[in-house]
């Protein structure tokens, strides 16, 4: 077997560290490139060299930012596969830190791709990088797919909700006076990003697929739905909703739920996400395409809050705000059949099992600092909550 050496940008983070473990287990040599941002690693126990103690000791480590001169280029020595996970994450924060998000996400991708474009080809005329996988996001869809509640017509891809409806607290979508019901969202749905983060991720995905085709490097963009699990940053108020809710509950505060809490999402365990990345990197299929990575099951935000309170032994009901955060959509959950059809990958962990694993990890981690109130104040100041 030819040597397989993967570079994982953001490899010391939540998803990246789990992917590192899995690829090493499957025989890859792994190099991690990570800037170790405080917002991501504030909760993590660090070793003497400043790396998270959970990071696999078999991984090569490079501390640096892909935007810094020649950092990414030097990290490519001996690399055959690339997984790009490094990004600034968070819908709300992206709407106030527009330059920072666009620089880190879009320009970061541009630096990577221009570096790859300028690499010397192998003697056989092939690019030294044999496969690429990039982390995209379900946020690029905007609203998910729907159907009319009266059963008339085919699936519908509605536009974003209007300000008048949101200000009148009309949360659900309708068409011609008929309520719309959410259905699983397929990769064929038109993209309609509703936040700067989502716009960045759409650009991310399209840039990688475009350059991957041009360089004849098989490339897969994985549209990740709401990922949760161990090693998630609990003190980061811009991370996943499960981690934010846990932080609030551990500080004896109610989870803050936007709208009426009945919006539906798809929560997928981090090990299922890592398995999807590993599968597409191991494959030899010549493919340039995007795939959903989710659980295939929808759950309301209220159910998430109540489940976490029960598992943590906290008799605390969610604080339903009946307010809208700019950039949020109503319903979106994944149709995962395409990934299973093309790569044989399907989710293996159900929600209750995954949440119990998350709680077990949380109970061993240091108590998070609840920064949700500060985050809400920033949104209020910027008029991003209605």
Topology:
Layout: E1 5-9, H1 14-25, E2 29-34, H2 38-41, E3 60-63, H3 71-75, E4 81-84, H4 91-94, H5 98-117, E5 131-137, E6 145-148, H6 163-167, E7 174-175, E8 178-183, H7 196-215, E9 219-224, E10 226-228, H8 241-250, E11 256-257, E12 264-265, E13 267-269, H9 270-282, E14 288-293, E15 299-300, H10 301-312, E16 319-320, H11 337-343, H12 351-362, H13 372-381
Parallel strand pairs: 1-2, 1-4, 2-3, 4-5, 5-9, 9-14, 10-13, 11-16
Antiparallel strand pairs: 6-8, 7-8, 12-15
Helix pairs in contact: 1-9, 5-7, 8-10, 10-12
Describe this structure in words.
The chain is an alpha/beta fold and 386 residues long. It has one domain (5-381): 3-Layer(aba) Sandwich (Rossmann fold), CATH 3.40.50. Helices cover 35% and strands 17% of the residues. It has helices at 14-25, 38-41, 71-75, 91-94, 98-117, 163-167, 196-215, 241-250, 270-282, 301-312, 337-343, 351-362, 372-381; strands at residues 5-9, 29-34, 60-63, 81-84, 131-137, 145-148, 174-175, 178-183, 219-224, 226-228, 256-257, 264-265, 267-269, 288-293, 299-300, 319-320. The protein has a 7-stranded parallel beta sheet with strand order 3-2-1-4-5-9-14, sandwiched between helices. A hairpin with a 2-residue loop joins strand 7 and strand 8. Helix 1 (14-25) crosses helix 9 (270-282) and helix 8 (241-250) packs across helix 10 (301-312). The protein is globular. The mean pLDDT is 91.
